[in-house]
Amino acid sequence: MRRLLFAAFCFSARAVEAEETKQPTAQDAEEFQQAPSLLQDFLDFDLNKDKQIDAQEVRTQFKGELDPKELHQFFIDVDQDLSGTISLQEYISYASSLHSDPPA
Hints:
By secondary structure, the protein is mostly helical. Helix content is 59%, strand content 0%.
């Protein structure tokens, strides 16, 4: 997850939008194969094991290397339900969007 978070902070990532119904593609298959590594990345960041990632957990993992504005923008981009935390589904949706749509 750290590598994906780092990529997100290096690029201006767009907000995640609901996908339209579509036929599965080769890219969809590739993203499905990446799911185990995304799960492990998520679990590595979920320090208190509550199945949510909060800002403090992200700050802890980045050991002060993270600009507060970048962290705030990341949560705006990823936290679809505005709960203040990131669920596994929100993380996977966001990570998939990074792979499918390069930043402008």
